[in-house]
Structure formats: C-alpha cells, structure tokens
Amino acid sequence: MAKISMKTPLVEMDGDEMTRIIWQQIKDIVICPFVDLKTEYYDLGLVNRDKTDDQVTIDSANRTKELGVAVKCATITPNAQRMTEYNLKEMWKSPNGTIRAMLDGTVFRAPILVKGITPFVSCWKKPITIARHAYGDVYKNSELRVEGAAKAELVVTYPDGRKETKVIHEFDGPGIIQGLHNTDKSITSFARACFTYALDIKQDLWFATKDTISKTYDHRFKDIFAEVYENEFKAKFEEAGIEYFYTLIDDVVARIMRNEGGILWACKNYDGDVMSDMLASANGSLAMMTSVLVSPNGVYEYEAAHGTVTRHYYKYLKGEATSTNPMATIFAWSGALRKRAQMDELPDLEDFADRLEKASIQTIEEGTITGDLKNLIDIPEKNVVNTEEFLKAIAAKL
Ligand code: NAP
Ligand code: MG
After folding, report:
1. Domain that residue 128 falls in
2. Does ligand 1 lie within 6 Å of residue 322's CB atom?
3. Of 284, 279, 304, whose CA–CA distance to 293 is shortest?
4. From CA 12, how far away is CA 21, in angstroms rounded?
5. How far is CA 109 from CA 34, 77, 264, 302, 303, in A?
6. 359 has pLDDT over 80
7. What's the CATH number where 233 sits?
8. pTM of the predicted protein model
9. Does the structure show a pLDDT above 90 at 178?
10. Ligand 1 and 311: CB distance under 6 A
11. Is the pLDDT of residue 284 over 90?
C-alpha cells in the first residue's frame, strides 16, 4: 500500500513522561504505517528545555507561526519538586503559557464523545466546545484589604498627567477592594480567534458576559465582539450558515443545559475557567478532552487537555504495564493532520484524519478500552488493554 503523502511539515513538539512514551507509540503504530509523515521536530521535554535555556520552546513557537500548524505533547511545568528531580538551572515557565503568549492565541477545548459514555446532561448529543479568554480580569488583579473607615477610589493617570478618578466605595468599617483590567487588543484577538474557529468547525458561536451589571467593563467585551463580527466575519458566517449569538452569562448557562450541543461557547477568563471544568466533568474523563490553540490570524496548535500523567509514568519506569488513554493525543495528531491537509489541499490526508478518529472511537465502542474508561463506559463487554494493545486495535481497523 502506498503511503499518503504530505506537503508542508507539521511542527512537532515532543513532551514529557507518560505522554512522551505514548507520543512515539502513536506515531509508530497508527500514523507512520499509513502516512509518509513530515514533521519538523522540536524536543520540548524538560531535559532539553533546560539544556537550551528554554530556547527550544521559543523556536518551536516561531516556526509554528511560519508553517501554520503544530502538534504538541503534554509537557511538565516545573515546580520546586521538579527542580530537584531534573536538577534544573531555572524554574522554566509553562511552555503552554509561552506558546500562547507568542501566538496571541485562544484555547478551545472539546470532549470526544463515544457511545456508552453518556454525559451527565442527558440532552447533550454533540460536543460543546469552550473557548476561554486567557488574559486579564481576576487573574491579573490588584487587591487590597481595607482596614477600616476609608474612601477607596479608582485612579487613572495618563502620560500627559491628566487624571481620572472614580469612587469605588466609602467604607465605614473594614472590607476589601479589587482592581481588574483588560485591553482592547487582547479582547479583539480573542474575538478574532473565536470567530475564526467557529468558521473552521462550522458551529454557531455563543458569547456571554454580564453587561447589564457591568455597563462599561463587560459592555466593552460585547461591543468589541459585535464590531469584529460586523466588520470581518458577518458575511463569512452567513455563507457558512452559522450564527453569532450574544446573551447574558446566566441566560447562556440555562440555554446550555437545554441544548443538544454542537456549539462553540466563548467565555470570559473566569467563566471559562469554571465552565470548562464543569464541561469536562460532565463528560466523564480528562483523557477524552481535546485542546487546540488558535491565533487570531489562523495559526493552530493541537494538543490533549490532560498533563503528562506522571503517576502512570512512575509505574511504567518500574516496568509495570500501564493502560494510559491515548485518545486525546491521537485527536491532537488527527486534528493537526486534518488542518495541514486542508491548508495544503490534500484530500487523502484529510480522509486519513477522519478515518483515524472514526477507528479510535469504534475501537472503544466495540469494547476495547483503556483502564480509565472501565467504570465510566456502559457497554456489555469490556476488554481492558494496555496502551500499545489499544493502539494496535485501532491500527487493525485502519
Ligand atoms: P495529568 O497528567 O492530567 O493527570 C492527572 C490524573 O488524571 C492522572 O494521574 C490520571 O489519573 C488521570 N489522567 C489524565 N490523563 C489520562 C490519560 N490520558 N489516561 C488515563 N488517565 C489519565 O495531571 P497532573 O498529574 O496534575 O500533572 C502531571 C504533569 O503534567 C505536571 O508536571 C503538569 O505540569 C503537567 N501538565 C501539563 C499540561 C500540558 O502540557 N498541557 C497540562 C496539565 C498538566 P489516575 O492516576 O487516577 O489514573
Ligand atoms: Mg479551572
């Protein structure tokens, strides 16, 4: 059988621990036998990040901007314990944070749905994708404890010395205050990334804030989304037959619970933090959540939503068999291959990406599963296998 060929290479970002092992197995077992895989390899494993003073992360992000599509393995974000474990020169920043900042990107997360794993919300038939604005608001706040009677004010000082002030509260006893900010630039990038991705997956985009209460702050989000939509995306949305819908955050929550899914839900930073955890738990398993970073100008980086599955890796190092679920990482590869295929107009490659996803889902639905799904899936016969056997079952279907 002739292998499917590629034109432009993917930027391949390798990672750490159990997911690094799975990364190689996925390539060996379900991709390379079928595709003449072309990648530009960057080793973002912690050892090499330390060796290169994290330059490898920056290089990989820059190359992604040039080539347009990357696929990333989960990586360790070092903490104090990792400093000792890996004898690190520095507590390097999270690669995801670095890449997201360099691409000015927004993260979209969606569950992989299979028959037998029913979401807790029974009307959800299609995946709901959540986009979280990853800048500002309460995550970059300034807070103060007010010790007693006091007047608290907001003060803005412009470069020419002009000042604007507004009273927050006249305290007659102790309390607390908090200052939040966001920027037009960041909100605009977020809006563009959301509209771009909605067009990409051909799903309606919902966005919600609390603009009835926050008449300047949240209202600015609403206005920017409306402006970007009118000026840059309205015609494209009409052509694609999809809708942009704005409402209040409480209204959207009520609607989501009655909806069958298949929508893209854009959230402000805090809403996205909370709602993406709700969505992940309602769908069962972190191992079945995909994640893609999209820049406002249409650069894509695909990955799994979970981490490096450290606990399984330590067992693997002791020679014990592990049954780590590779689904989200497989879907990172299929997502990246499909996007590359669409950009390079390679229908065979696009078809392969579809078939890889279908074969993976079918393998689970027919009862061959990894350990994490054992108590989650409701099917008559369950055959729990290790990661390699699971991948071989998918390859057999392919
Ligand atoms: P994690 O790797 O997502 O794992 C947490 C637990 O979730 C695992 O111990 C496992 O539960 C379960 N799990 C996650 N993915 C699974 C899979 N594919 N198959 C089966 N079970 C799975 O999170 P963590 O342990 O908090 O973090 C480990 C490392 O990952 C940290 O160094 C962190 O910095 C890094 N991290 C990286 C990313 C990223 O690169 N995007 C994201 C998050 C975390 P059981 O142990 O009960 O089986
Ligand atoms: Mg959270």
Report:
1. 118-140+181-283
2. no
3. 304
4. 15
5. 28, 20, 9, 10, 10
6. yes
7. 3.40.718.10
8. 0.90
9. yes
10. yes
11. no
